[in-house]
Design brief:
The protein is mainly alpha-helical and 218 residues long. It is built from 8 helices and no strands.
Length: 218
């Protein structure tokens, strides 16, 4: 029975990987268009389907919603940066709720310190890069939400080497976007880092949460 379930649901992960990896090489296609936007959203979209099928209970529904909002944000960013950012922010808020519902039994001092650093440094670094650009305050507030998501993930019962690291990768990807927009780092650097960090982070988060929920333990 478990083997049959694996055969049934693993294709969603394989399709996600196929879409996520191939999009990286197709993202600079000059003709672009709607097909490229859908291709972009497919990587995390398939993770949402995977989470919906394989997740358990209310928490399983929450991680599916997080991934669905991420996929919608991927597409919306190509049309309107603020709308896309709002969808991602909503997804982060749902993720924070998920992680707070699943606290780690015992959080060490170093883990608390890491969580506090993610919470405080993420908006501080982002704000320092985008100020005084237009909408710098919005970017800073959004980064505070991202930092809170990563801090909650790091101190949750979900495995840090999957969900925690995935959340940190998401943070770094967003900081790379701000570094690109503010010309803090050259496009040659950020263009190679943003998508792999983002998609890889989402993949680790989805798989880490779902596997933990199915095992019923850390």
């Amino acid at each position: 029975m478990p083997h049959r379930a694996l055969i049934k649901h693993r294709p969603w992960l394989l399709m996600s990987l196929l879409a996520g990896v191939t999009y990286f090489f197709a993202s600079d296609d000059p003709i672009g268009g709607a097909w490229l936007m859908l291709w972009k959203g497919a990587g995390v979209g398939f993770l949402a389907i995977y989470a919906a099928f394989r997740g358990r209970g209310f928490d399983g529904a929450l991680i599916a919603v997080v991934m669905a909002l991420g996929a919608a944000g991927d597409v919306a960013l190509e049309l309107d940066f603020l709308v896309g950012g709002a969808l991602f922010a909503l997804g982060h808020i749902v993720a924070i709720g998920l992680y707070l519902r699943n606290p780690r039994e015992k959080v060490s001092g170093s883990q608390m310190l890491a969580g506090a650093a993610l919470l405080g440094l993420t908006p501080a670094i982002a704000g320092s890069m985008v100020y005084p650009m237009p909408n710098w305050a919005v970017a800073t507030i959004y980064s505070a939400v991202v930092g809170a998501m990563a801090a909650a993930a790091w101190t949750s019962r979900f495995p840090r080497y999957r969900v925690g690291i995935g959340a940190v990768m998401f943070v770094v990807s967003d900081l790379m976007i701000f570094a690109q927009e503010s010309a803090v780092l050259p496009n040659l650097v950020t263009s190679w880092l943003i998508w792999p960090l983002y998609y890889g982070g989402q993949f680790l988060i989805a798989v880490g949460v779902v596997q933990t929920l199915r095992k019923g333990k850390v």
